[in-house]
Write a structure and sequence with these properties.
Length: 361
């Protein structure tokens, strides 16, 4: 190779190494290898040489062309790598930073407790049943063995709706319990039945411990051989899971409800020391729910044969058990829509209740 070609090589490789960015590098490429480039010009001169010299010079030029192209490409890759690294550095994300706006929202303790109840009973093989909040007299009272003039009707402090004539319509009530849902289920489905009915209920009652609207969950199991032992086992399993206490002490006290016979109120073991309630320890008792074997009249009213089918039912207030589990002292605060209260007592959405992940520790 002649000195001139060596000089050309030296000059071009220097240009390549001096190019400061992709644009400058491309200019070097055009100046060397483009249509009017220096190597291209040398190629064009080959025609004037004799064959032997042309062959020799052609080979040298091709080699030079390859070397320069390779140098340009290597520098290009280096620029691209540097640009990518710069971009990655600029867009670095600190994954350990806490999320911001999403953390603001809270699940209301009633929603959380409701979800927990559904998760536990779901795991036990119950399905969730739903029904209307405006009911007729039959589903709210008569089918539940509460006939007209029965004192329980007064006790329920029922909200009646107004008829078209402006008078009270005694056949149109805001349901006073979710038992209406169980009645509808028994009317429409064949046993075995295993459902829970969580829902809003209404009673014209308002003081420290009562609000006109409150949430209830009731359960119903109907089959051919269901007995009180099943009720006991079911309540033990549910209450153990809900209060997260193994073998939570339970006490059944004989009671009376028109829709169950026999009926029992259920207490759980607790201690009350220095005004602090602890569930599952101590030798005090706390009433938690009502229960019993479904009254034969109720089974009959739903079109089933009480000689063939029997079962158990129970009901509890969701606000009440939420207050006990989460130490919320005042029932009425559930309905104040106070954001500070919700921030304190509410739950992060990502802590949604599930038995698979375990209820809250
Ligand atoms: C059907 C048959 C029987 C559901 C029952 C109770 C006892 C009970 C109260 C607890 C507190 C309501 O929220 S509360 O005020 N409930 O004491 N509930 S037995 O019995 C039924 C339900 C449906 C067809």
């Amino acid at each position: 190779m002649t000195d001139t070609l060596d000089q050309l090589r030296g000059a071009l490789l220097e240009d390549v190494s001096k190019a400061e960015n992709l644009e400058a590098l491309d200019a070097v490429r055009v100046a060397a290898l483009g249509k009017k480039g220096r190597i291209t010009a040398e190629m064009k001169n080959l025609g004037g040489l004799d064959p032997e010299a042309r062959k020799q010079r052609g080979q040298e030029l091709n080699q030079l062309k390859g070397e320069v192209a390779e140098a340009i490409n290597a520098r290009k890759v280096a620029f691209e790598d540097a640009a990518l690294n710069e971009q990655l550095e600029a867009e670095r994300i600190d994954v350990s930073l806490p999320i911001r706006p999403e953390e603001m929202g809270r699940l209301h303790p009633i929603s959380q407790t409701w979800d927990e109840i559904v998760a536990i009973f779901g795991e036990m093989g119950f399905t969730v049943a739903d029904g209307p909040e405006i009911e007729d007299d039959f589903h709210n009272f008569t089918a539940l063995n509460i006939p007209a003039e029965h004192p329980a009707r007064q006790e329920h402090d029922t909200f009646y709706l107004q008829g078209e004539d402006g008078q009270i319509d005694y056949n149109s009530v805001l349901r006073t319990h979710t038992s209406t849902v169980q009645i509808r289920t028994m009317q429409n489905e064949q046993p075995p039945i295993r459902i829970i009915a969580p829902g809003r209920t209404y009673r014209s009652d308002s003081d420290m411990t009562h609000t006109p609207m409150f949430s209830q969950v009731e359960a119903l199991v109907i089959d051919k051989n269901t007995h009180f032992g099943h009720l006991k086992g079911c309540l033990q399993d549910f209450l153990d899971a809900f209060f997260e206490v193994k073998d939570l002490p339970l006490r059944f006290r004989a009671s009376y409800f028109p829709f169950t016979e026999p009926s029992a109120e259920v207490d759980i073991g607790c201690s009350r020391k220095d005004g602090t309630l602890k569930i599952g320890e101590g030798d005090d008792w706390l009433e938690i729910l009502g229960s019993g074997m479904v009254h034969p009249n109720v089974i009959k009213a739903c079109g089933l044969d009480p000689e063939e089918y029997q079962g158990f039912a129970f009901g509890m207030g969701i606000e009440r058990i939420a207050m006990l589990k989460y130490g919320i002292p005042d029932l009425r605060t559930f309905f104040d829509a106070d954001m500070r209260w919700l921030k304190h007592h509410g739950f992060l959405p990502l802590e949604a209740a599930s038995l698979i992940r375990g209820l809250r520790p």
